[in-house]
């Protein structure tokens, strides 16, 4: 029988495009110090340290060793994670297993990226097969455009929905002091921005950010003694596939298979959720472009296929709507890849604590989802709650 695991401390830096006055370690320490202060603990209280980012993006290798002084991991057990866009969420999964198994009672989780030290797109391009894909790749943007076009073609979703999503994401980010791109955009401004790769205009593409996020996780026994508002990791699942998986099989008459659908089915079934938009109050989504909102609404089993964009059109996913998506502004506004997934869990926990500040949702929340998404069609999905009786 596994033990319950709670989030008891959260810290994040402000995100930006450059931070020349700090090295990686100093930036990490800023987030770690904020998380420990939030939890009213010190580095000495941490039994294990889970740390991760995309080393190649900064031109480093096994940087957990060179950053041990800043992370507080000297002499402690831990893991270095590197799983693409899901590195942040996989750190939370790893910490959960450490605590739930009884191996330890406290874990410090750290995700970060310092994109001003190297070029990201050339690094991402190397994941593509050199024989038949690499010459046509423009980094992650290629996949985002393909997914967006496929969704529009399958469901009849108009391009204007993308502009609408990006507009309300900018409104959310403007309320979040730690977001990177906080400028507000109208749907018209998003539509009229320079087209980069159809259907994605300049304002629909996530930025290259840098920053750090840290969280403290704790066993139920200790968490209840420490804080009166723990956020519990009620459930989580990880699903991934080989390159491509069954994502495009429907184009040749086969079934459409993807990891998000499988993850959504698992979480809904295990937690007996039959009316997700009523039983779950919001979601912090890994959303690198606006068409992921309707696409993931459907794939995560939150609404029927083809209905996601229609719900967005009605305002359901706005911060003050029935089911807010990424009230923090999401990945579209802040994308330090090493902490993008971790931020989704951290921001969801802040919402459930009622500590999200100006970007707090107006709906009273008891449960929320957080997701991670990345290479190899890798999906992590979390169900968080502020209720201890489950």
Question: Would you write up a description of this structure?
Answer:
The relative contact order is 0.19. The protein has a domain at 5-120 and 208-225: Thiolase/Chalcone synthase (Peroxisomal Thiolase, Chain A, domain 1). It is of the alpha/beta class and 390 residues long. It is globular. It contains 15 helices and 11 strands. The chain starts with a strand and ends in a 5-residue tail after the last strand.
CATH class of the domain at 5-120 and 208-225: Alpha Beta
- Strand fraction band? 15-25%
**Fraction in helix:** 25-40%
What is the 3D shape?
globular
The first-to-last residue Cα distance is: 14 Å
The CATH architecture of the domain at 5-120 and 208-225 = 3-Layer(aba) Sandwich
The CATH topology of the domain at 5-120 and 208-225 is given as Peroxisomal Thiolase, Chain A, domain 1
- What's the CATH H-level superfamily name of the domain at 5-120 and 208-225? Thiolase/Chalcone synthase
Can you list the strand order of the major beta sheet? 3-2-4-7-1-8-11-10-9
**Uncertain runs:** none
Number of strands: 11
How would a textbook summarize the main sheet?
9 strands, mixed
Chain-averaged pLDDT: 93
Look at the helices and sheets and give the structural class: alpha/beta
Overall radius of gyration: 20 Å
Q: Give the count of helical stretches.
A: 15
* Topology pattern, helix = H, strand = E: EHEHHHEHEHHHHEEEHEHHEHHHEE
């Amino acid at each position: 029988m596994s033990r319950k695991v709670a989030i008891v401390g959260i810290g994040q830096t402000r995100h930006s495009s450059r931070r020349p006055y700090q090295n990686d370690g100093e930036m990490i320490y800023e987030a770690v110090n904020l998380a420990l202060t939030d939890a009213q603990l010190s580095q000495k209280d941490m039994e294990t340290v889970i740390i991760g980012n995309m080393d190649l993006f900064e031109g480093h290798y096994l940087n957990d060793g060179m950053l041990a002084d800043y992370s507080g991991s000297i002499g402690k057990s831990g893991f270095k994670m590197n799983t693409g866009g899901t590195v942040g969420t996989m750190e939370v999964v790893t910490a959960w297993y450490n605590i739930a198994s009884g191996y330890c009672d406290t874990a410090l989780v750290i995700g970060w990226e310092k994109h001003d030290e190297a070029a990201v797109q050339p690094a991402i391009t190397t994941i593509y097969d050199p024989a038949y894909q690499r010459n046509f790749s423009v980094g992650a943007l290629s996949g985002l455009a393909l997914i967006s076009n496929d969704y529009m073609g399958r469901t009849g979703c108009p391009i204007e929905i993308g502009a609408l999503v990006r507009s309300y994401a900018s409104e959310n980010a403007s309320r979040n002091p730690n977001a990177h791109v906080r400028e507000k955009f109208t749907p018209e401004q998003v539509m009229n921005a320079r087209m980069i790769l159809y259907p994605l205009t300049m304002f629909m593409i996530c930025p290259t950010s840098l920053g750090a996020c840290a969280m403290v996780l704790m066993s139920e026994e200790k968490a209840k003694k420490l804080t009166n508002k723990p956020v519990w990791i009620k459930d989580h699942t990880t699903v991934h596939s080989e390159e491509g998986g069954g994502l495009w099989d429907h184009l040749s008459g086969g079934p459409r298979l993807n990891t998000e659908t499988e993850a959504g089915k698992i979480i809904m079934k295990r937690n007996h959720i039959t009316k997700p938009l009523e039983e779950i109050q919001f979601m912090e989504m890994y959303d690198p472009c606006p068409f992921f909102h309707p696409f993931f609404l459907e794939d995560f089993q939150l609404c029927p296929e083809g209905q996601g964009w229609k719900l967005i059109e009605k305002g359901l996913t706005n911060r003050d709507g029935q089911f807010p998506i990424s009230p923090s502004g999401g990945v579209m506004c802040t994308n330090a890849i090493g902490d993008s997934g971790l931020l989704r869990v951290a921001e969801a926990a802040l919402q459930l604590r009622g500590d999200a500040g100006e970007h707090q949702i107006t709906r009273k929340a008891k449960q929320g989802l957080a997701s991670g998404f990345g290479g190899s069609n890798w999906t992590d999905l979390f169900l968080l709650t502020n209720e201890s009786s489950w």
